[in-house]
Write a structure and sequence with these properties.
This protein has 86 residues and is of the alpha+beta class. 23% of the residues lie in helices and 19% in strands. β1 and β2 form a beta hairpin. It is globular and about 40 Å long. The relative contact order is 0.28.
């Protein structure tokens, strides 16, 4: 299996600014999306649910990754906001 860096990585798309209680789009996600040629297809898969219920785990399995989306061993959230895979 190839390493995560060769296959892609998880990128935070939408972040939550806790101080202002507003959402924003990350520069990294905007740069990635702007670089996609217009003739290429983009696939969208959405998984939603309460925290600590295995959303990142199932996405990692779906992508055949062991270390794609961060998976924690505590009650702290690892992937706040909306994330995407490049």
């Amino acid at each position: 299996m190839e390493s995560t860096s060769e296959q892609g990585k998880a990128i935070q798309f939408v972040y939550i600014d806790e101080e202002s209680e507003q959402f924003g789009v990350t520069d990294e996600a905007m740069a990635f999306l702007a670089g996609i040629p217009r003739d290429k297809q983009v696939k969208v898969v959405a998984i939603a649910g309460p925290y600590r219920t295995g959303k990142s785990f199932i996405l990692n399995r779906f992508l055949n990754q062991m270390r794609g989306f961060e998976v924690g061993s505590t009650v702290e959230s690892c992937t706040k906001g909306i994330w995407m895979w490049n």
